[in-house]
Amino acid sequence: MSCLVKTNYSLQLSSTAMAMCSSFCPQIPNQLRARPICPFPRKPLYTLSVKAFSSETSNASSKADGLSARIGFLGLGIMGSPMAQNLIKAGCDVTVWNRTKIKCDPLISLGAKYKSSPRDVAASCDVTFAMLANPESALEVACGEHGAASGMSSGKGYVDVSTVDGATSKLIGERINATGASFLEAPVSGSKKPAEDGQLIFLTAGDKSLFELVAPLLDIMGKSRFYLGDVGKGAAMKLVVNMIMGSMMASFSEGLLLSEKVGLDPSVLVEVVSQGAISSPMYSTKGPSMIQSTYPTAFPLKHQQKDLRLALGLAESVSQPTPIAAAANELYKVAKSHGLSDQDFSAVIEALKAKLQNPPK
Ligand SMILES: NC(=O)C1=CN([C@@H]2O[C@H](COP(=O)(O)OP(=O)(O)OC[C@H]3O[C@@H](n4cnc5c(N)ncnc54)[C@H](OP(=O)(O)O)[C@@H]3O)[C@@H](O)[C@H]2O)C=CC1
Ligand SMILES: O=CC(=O)O
Questions:
Q1: Which residues form the 3-hydroxyisobutyrate dehydrogenase-like NAD-binding domain (predicted)?
Q2: In this predicted model, what pLDDT tens digit does every residue of 287-344 receive, in sequence order?
Q3: Which ligand 1 atom is the nearest neighbour of the CA of 80?
Q4: Which end of the chain has fewer CB atoms at under 10 Å, N or C?
Q5: 49-53, 221-225, 245-249 — which is least confidently predicted?
């Protein structure tokens, strides 16, 4: 496993410095030498993460290196839109598609091209990213009629950044590989704001050469990237992380409501929690709105419940007991049954309020 983290210590190298560095490090690929800085250099393009590149030859790299690749982006929801936007703002050549076409329009205004099907996007691009809601939509967009696989061929790459289970990811990977193209699963940790800020954490697995090729693109959209091995490992890491997160939010919800019932000020609880060993940005950012019973959507509750369901399936596959996650999953199911699917997942607190304890008749 390898992990690269962009920190404040990462160096933005000038073209001259890159040229000097390249002369000492002949293994650095040409595409990393003296590349002109993109028109919108929001973040350092040349960081110490160049060390991640290996000398392995990539199927996909024969056509284009990461930054100059023609990039496709499928799925422009809460996460996909800002991710694609960051690529466009960094000067990349991006072609978009979304089931609901109107969501493409702001990106087209920023300079993106548009194609009317995943197949057409994949056929016209070197590397295609997909950010879909769930396993069903990820499969449909990759492998369905007019799906991306029908536009893939040798020399291209497909990077699925959706949160799905390992079995779905493997199916997609096999279908993509059957066309001669390369496949990388790369689900992300981090929500709407990190996506907007280019601060996502990529949990990748699959074709290592494709990982290396798209690393500069991942670095535009994210702050760190892990390479975890064979397809399925990235999905598994993401599901374990989100299993923990879903349980944490359910537990935090119980604490907020209990504090209020025993006469404490829940805002003070949020403050106390934020100063101690269990502090988390999730509590300090979501706590104040939860106290107001408002749940502006960053991570839809239906996706958190999907992740818990998939994590429980993963645990079942290896006979690992996960009683806390199972209990949390039930709460998210109650919240869904009360029409809270599209609210932020912090709306799970509503499932603990007395009036919601009995499902609607
Ligand atoms: N929001 C978050 O904080 C995070 C989300 N994730 C994961 O990222 C993925 C996307 O999340 P997010 O952007 O929040 O979700 P959204 O619900 O905002 O977007 C879902 C996307 O999937 C598309 N889609 C859904 N069903 C289909 C279908 N049958 N065929 C084609 N396209 C379909 C939607 O298209 P349309 O616009 O037409 O509905 C939309 O583009 C999920 O897997 C989620 O678990 C990961 C990390 C953080
Ligand atoms: O999947 C959600 C996240 O915040 O990460």
A1: 232-351
A2: 999 999 999 999 999 999 999 999 999 999 999 999 999 999 999 999 999 999 999 9
A3: 13
A4: C
A5: 49-53
CA dihedral sign, ordered 128, 40, 219, 27: positive
| pLDDT exceeds cutoff 60 at 205 | yes
Name the residue with tokens 């990106």: 107
Per residue in 340-353, pLDDT tens?
Answer: 999 999 999 999 99
Instruction: Please tell me whether residues 223 and 304 are part of one structural domain.
Output: no
Instruction: Tell me if 303 CB under 6 Å of ligand 1.
Output: yes
Residue 46 Cβ < 6 Å to ligand 2: no
Q: Which residues of 267-280 are buried (b: 16+ CB within 10 A; e: fewer)?
A: eebbeebeeeeeee
Location of structure tokens 């993509």: 176
193 is catalytic: no
Q: Would you say the CB of residue 345 lies under 6 angstroms from ligand 2?
A: no
Ligand 1 centroid–CA 300 distance in Å is 9
* Pocket test residue of 74, 83, 99, 302 for ligand 1, highest count of atoms within 8 A of CB: 99
**Contact (Cβ atoms closer than 8 angstroms) between residue 230 and residue 170:** no
Ligand 1 binding pocket includes 38 (Cβ within 6 Å): no
Question: Has residue 189 been placed in a domain?
Answer: yes
Note whether 188 and 247 are same-domain residues.
no
Q: Considering only 49-58, 76-85, 104-113, 277-286, which range has the smallest mean pLDDT? A: 49-58
Residue 167 lies in a domain: yes
Same domain, residue pair 188 and 293: no
Which among 115, 233, 238, 286 is annotated as catalytic?
Answer: 238
- Closest ligand to C-alpha of residue 135 is 1
Atom of ligand 2 minimally distant from the CA of 307: 1
Determine whether the shortest distance from the Cβ of 91 to ligand 2 is under 6 A. Answer: no
Cβ(64)–Cβ(126) under 8 Å? Answer: yes
Residue 180 has pLDDT above 50, yes or no: yes
**DSSP-assigned letter for residue 159:** E
Nearest to 290 by CA among 359, 360, 343, 233: 343
pLDDT attached to residue 67: 83
- Of 106, 211, 280, 349, nearest to 340 by C-alpha is 349
* Count of domains forming the chain: 2
C-alpha Rg value of the chain to the nearest Å: 21
